[in-house]
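re: that complex we talked abt at group meeting.

here r the seqs, copy pasted straight from the sheet so there may be weird spacing, ignore it
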Amino acid sequence: MRIVRRLLAAASLGSAALMAQATAQTIYPLTRAEILAGSKFDFKVEFPGAVAPEQVKVTVNGTDATKVFGAEPTIEASDDGPARTDYWFRQVSLSKPGSYEVTATAGTATQTVKWEVFSTGPRRARNVILFIGDGLSMAHRTAARMLAKGIVEGRYGGELAIDDMPHMALVSTSGTDSIVTDSANSMSAYTTGHKSCVNAMGVYCATGKSPNAYPKVENIAELVKSRNGGMAVGVVTNTEIEDATPAAVVAHVRRRSDYDNIVRAFYEAKPEVIMGGGSPFFLPKSDQDGKRHDEENYLEKFKAAGYRFVATATEMKAAGADKTTRQLLGLFHKSNLDGALDRLVLKKGTVSRYPDQPDLADQTQVAIDILSKTANGFFLMVESGLIDKYAHVLDWERSVYDTILLDNAVEVARRFAADRNDTLIIVVADHSHPVSIIGTYDDARPGERLRDKMGIYADAKFPNYPAADDKGYPPSVDVSRRLAFVFGAFPDHCTTGKPSLGGPFKPAEEKDNKAVANEVFCTPNATRMEGNLPFVQPQGVHSADDVVLTAMGPGSEAFHGRIDNTRVFRVIVDALGLAPGS
Ligand SMILES: [Zn+2]
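got the structure back, here u go
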């Protein structure tokens, strides 16, 4: 047992104080954790205050933890945060499935947590493709279907690929610290099977400031690369590749903003396919485009590691068509790519500066073409990430066009999986937004104000978007009877009920530590909306509402009813047989 000297001094503090302080020790993984047999995790107990080592007793199903983990714990006094004594076993695992009762005692104070360690059945899926519609909510689906498939006399002209799947479940997304999650911890639940707190991924939100204070849990990239003979991994998005959702496939960080370390995690994990935006965080700070805080040049590192680098859709397709391409790094934008409405219809946003951006459906095709060369199969994550970003700025048209974008990417995967029964496809949101379709705004209605133009119930009738093109996109959103797609939470802002044709909408801006309406949009015929969010909040927010998951392929029958988001991980690792009957 390694003891840090400072402890001995602390031990003299007198046991009374010691006993009182030790009541609230915290054990990580938290209670009710479901742990994949054999998966690695950090085991941590935080005892408040200074605890003498001989006072500490930790058992796992009644057996001393040192025997169970076959290692000696590290016990260290820590003062980065409230004074405490940390008890660690790093990167341990439990191979025997079953229920575990873990008890940590210091003096008279005892804390117990219960875990379930689970094994998997035999492997049934060769590949898993996980689609994340970031912030995809029910209204997004409904609006996307109306625009892409049309609706006549109440009947839709067809099904979305994301809907038309044999299995469906409701997924609850709350994290360890709050009913409302953010993308980091919700995606981390999908990629590790463990819950975490807002902004964190691949770790538990324990006490402390140093990066090592947070107990790590093994993620899907690490798991599939070290099992089944080594599978391939792909991470594809149209946001910055360092953003929370793609990052949670590979990274272990307490803060989703820790882009430097997230890029390092990508390099260490080496997914065979990496595609998105956010190129500046691959470049050293001395580079004119570099945004790193160090002099590391990860672009050169990836090239040196054998990656083919591409920066445009044209280059990406060439790489995809090249039979020799086995590792691909695609960085198509300094920030987030533009969404489908701007890229394909309005040509706004940054399209003029980035005229050759890839479409998520093409990215998906190229990723599958490259990954399916790996004999042991692959895990691919594809994110339509701008659904969320546009929902935050109350720009529903752009959010819904990127829902149709997701649908097209899913269609590519369905075509790949169609004549082979070895690929599990899952489509799910990481969280929802408070959105709903309550009627239409009809310019033909009398009156000038927004509320005059709103049609509800029978007066809503049907929107008159032109018929969609072969990709499901109406060639215009600037029509006379538009959906009244409303947001349940918003800052002060002005709205006309019309699409923002000049570029993505920006409802509010920060002024004197307050979010105020963006006057650019407060045109004479606009309606000024008083916000209902905290006064400092300049954007729309996530909601705690459950999200819909749809799935097809081997293992998808496990999805039904209401499930916790951590269950998605379990179904994935079970389909891949990552811990068969151990
Ligand atoms: Zn979000």
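couple things i noticed - The chain has three domains: 2-118, 127-435+541-576, 490-539. The CA atoms of residues 341 and 398 lie 6 Å apart.
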